[in-house]
Design brief:
The structure holds two protein chains of two kinds. By secondary structure, chain A is mainly α. Chain A has four helices and four strands; from the N terminus they run ααββααββ. In chain A, the strands form two sheets. Chain A has a two-stranded antiparallel ribbon. A two-stranded antiparallel sheet of chain A has the order 3-4. In chain A, strand 3 and strand 4 form a beta hairpin. In chain A, helix 2 packs antiparallel against helix 3. Chain B is built from six helices and 38 strands. In chain B, helix 5 packs antiparallel against helix 6. The chains are: A mainly alpha, B mainly beta.
Amino acid sequence: MKKMLFSLLLIGAMFASQMVVAAADLEVNTPAISAIKGSMQSRHAQLAPHYASGAVGLTKDGMVAVRDANAVPLKDRASLNGVVTAENADRAKLYKEIATANGHPEWQAEIQSTFATRWIDKAQGGWWVQGAGGWTKK
Amino acid sequence: MNALSRLVSFLCLGCYSVFAQAVSEISISAAHVEHAMGDAKNIALKVSLNQPKPTVTLHAALKPAKADAQSKPEDWVQFDLTCDLPKSLNTVEARCINGRLKGKRVDLPFNLEINRLFTHHQLDLNAVFNLKNGSFSDEAGLHAAEKLNGTLSIALKQEAQGWQWQTSLDWQAGEVFWQPFYIESGGHTVAANGILKDDLLHVNHAHLKINRVGELDLDGVIRLSDAKLLDLNATLPKLNLSAAYPLLFKPLLGNTAFNNATIEGDAALALKMKNAELQSFALKLNHVDIVDINNKFAFYQLNANIPWSYEASNPVQLSYDHGSLLNLPLGKTEMNAEVNRFSLTSPNIRLPLLDGALSLSNVSAARIRDEWYWHLSAKLEPISMSDFTAQLKLPRMLGKASAEIPLVTYSGGILTTDGSVVLNVFNGTATVTQLTMDTPLGIAPKLNAEIALRNLDLGELTRTFSFGAIEGKLDGDIKALALQNWKPVTFDAMLQSSPGKYPKKISQRAVENISALGGSGAAAAVQRSFLRFFEQFNYGKMGLSCRLRNDICEMGGIESTAHGYIIVKGSGIPAITVMGYNQTVGWSELLARVKRVTDGNSKAVIK
């Protein structure tokens, strides 16, 4: 009986977390969100070749990470770190702003994990993405 | 070191026996040798005596010991070395050419000259190591070098107080990335000497010359087991900031507001560390120009004298000739403050700004757990609105702005004000209260405030914004104003004619414009009625409100009617009433309407 109750609770919790994400408007727009998106968009041209070469990969927590700097000439490695740090700062801000714009700052973590799945789904073939078992080439 | 001396003794033992028995060649090979520091396999040592120059050749595959014992074939590094044998048995002078260490991530071709190995059976090494086109990289590529050319000379000798060492490095060419630093080419030298005892490397003196950046003298102690810098005394008398910024500072400034600037000028730095803690430093900046590439700030002819000590409080001075912050010009400024460990205080700092000044008093700042916290009182000495609006590329306004804020606090990236900023504009006042700002220099700055407008001269206001002429006075309340990236996100605004008696006239063009703001909905236009014969009308009251939420403005006027709201209520003869019909309008649509109106292309709808 106890076991069944626990299962019910678990199912309930899972359902509730699904509901949260379902209720959040991920496309919500505010000037802060559009400023962040604009900043990310203008950075994408710098990041795209690094995704393609495997130097940078998409992490399972909705961020990006330097995966193998050897794919990048030495002189560009410092800027590679800079661009990854800046991108992650923007991504963190984006998740926070979307949660705030939805009127639920506490949803940030779930919005972030929903985005993580989205980024990985949308990643082009040949890009490196992080799964439960580590890095894989898409 | 023991291992090295044992190896060398073994080699020489070989030499003696070879000469004694007059053999032409001797080969020693071993399949595998294990040691705590690493493994070696396929070892082949060959001594050839039949050539004009007798040589010794060593080939081996090496693998350093690793914490994770998982062995991969690419971990092995091939080591090759051929040396001339010494001509005399009394010396160990040797020249080794075509030495090479080669693996998957390392390729170090080198020459080695051993000038001396022993004195009185004690190790007394003097060797020169010459690297030709070397490269290496760690697995992640975060510590790597390419096309490295340089000469390293080492002298090492055992003395009573420990191993005495002396080295000089001449880095001639090649690039290095050592996270987060990148050095693109050579031209740097290091000369150093000291004592090595147990786990401590004492540097008695080191002189570093970094090409274009400057020269550095230092002494100190490094603990080798964890590569920790324990003590340090360093002086950098003249640092060229334009060369040092991209090399040393930019990588360290990471994602801060200062990581995207150009910088010119010199700095001098002296610093002292004791027991791995910073004890003191003295930084001087001389004639430095620092300009943000995105024009967020600029300071020219910056001079600073910043002494700091963990033990005592010190006076600091900073001055600049001129500059700008968020497009506002800053005049010649001198600041004096007292720095005590991680806090800073100053009774008064005056920042000339446009034709006035921002005067800060009772300034107190502290850095706690890598975050800045500060508070101060601010007074804005009157600045002219015409200069202010011109600098911010706003429509030109007349009047003066002044403000007095008893308390400004900054904590966790948020700037909060207590008190009010009063702007004297359009012969009236605009009072800003409850002003807070979140990351004003960041990518999506946020601002919250309440604004009260009182007795603004509508005549001057309508001329400034090329709106049709209106005579009268305007009050306004903008509550719960929130800006993101300097764009409005929410507010509750009501603008209406001020109470009291004064001439109230509105031009035909203004009527057209106001009704265009309220949205076209009715059919009767001034042009089609007898009203078109009048240039201006009397009004009793006017007002327009907008409640902005989710990009939608809920509009209203001074009174509601069955189908809309009254924006202008007529009075006397000729009188006119302007109605608004759009209850809600998209914010961008409203902005577009305002733009159409001020551009003078409106079509009016009048009832």
